[in-house]
Every structure is written in structure tokens, then in C-alpha cells.
């Protein structure tokens, strides 16, 4: 079974982009960590990053038919702007968790609204890059419970 981790715009700059907010861990480090954690739990973790909204929408569409059981997404700035990503999740019915490295509710007011949170299974915000691991722990426990 497969779990997909999607990262949106500018997350390819992790480790160098605003380290006071996002830390010094790179996206490669995050992907290696969740891939290893997923394998230890018996799951394949596929990782995808794009700075382009349409590519993210296309990847969500593909998740409907490629064996993906769950998506963990950090939509980056698209959290606050993308009806298209919301509609992709609504249209495919692929369950997902939303992850944010920073606590978006402590930041600028425009970051307080998410187009995805109300249809997400869960939201993880403010736990740094560990939020990905915490979300994956939740997802694998949920998938294991569904199998029993």
C-alpha cells in the first residue's frame, strides 16, 4: 500500500528558506525520513513536490487510480489560495492530512484560512518538520485499523 507526500511551492527551498521559521532541515531530509518511517510500518511512501498548482492537481488525480491509500500534503502558499487543489481532493475522494511546518495561526492573518482544512482528515501545524512524521504515524495507524 502506498502513501503519497505532496509538497507545494517553495518547499524545495527547505533548509535555506527563512530558517528562523522553517528550520535547516532540507526537503530531501524530510522525504528520506518519511520514506524510512513508512517502510518500517510496511508502507511505500512516494514523495512529490511542485511549484505549479496544475502539477499538484494532476498528481492528486493520479492518486485516485495508482494505489495511493492516503495523501499527506503541505500545500504551502496554495493552502490559502487554491480552490483547484481543494476540488481535486473533493473530486477524487482520496483521504488526506494537511501539514504545515510553522503554526500558521501565529503568522500573518492571511495564513489563518485554509481552503483544505475542512475536508482534511486531520491538520498538523506548528510541529516543524516533525509534523510530517506525526502525520505519517497517524495515517499508518488509521490504515492498519481499516485493515483489521
Shape: globular
Our count of helices gives 5
Average pLDDT, rounded to a whole number, is 92
* Helix and strand sequence: EHHEHEHEEH
| Residue runs with pLDDT of under 50 for 5 or more positions | none
What is the C-alpha radius of gyration, as a whole number of Å? 14 Å
Helix fraction, binned, reads 25-40%
Strand percentage: 15-25%
The N- to C-terminal Cα distance equals 15 Å
- Count of beta strands: 5
Strand order of the biggest β-sheet: 2-1-3-4-5
Q: What is the SS-derived class?
A: alpha/beta
Biggest sheet record: 5 strands, parallel
What does this structure look like?
This protein is of the alpha/beta class and 148 residues long. It has helices at residues 19-22, 27-40, 53-63, 83-92, 130-147, and strands at residues 2-7, 44-49, 68-74, 96-100, 122-125. It has a 5-stranded parallel sheet with strand order 2-1-3-4-5, with helices on both faces. Helix 4 (83-92) links the parallel strand 3 (68-74) and strand 4 (96-100). Helix 2 runs parallel beside helix 5 and helix 3 packs parallel to helix 4. The chain is globular. The two termini are 15 Å apart. 36% of the residues are buried. The mean pLDDT is 92.
Summarize the structure.
This protein has 148 residues and is of the alpha/beta class. The protein has helices at 19-22, 27-40, 53-63, 83-92, 130-147, and strands at residues 2-7, 44-49, 68-74, 96-100, 122-125. Strands 2-1-3-4-5 form a 5-stranded parallel β-sheet, with helices on both faces.
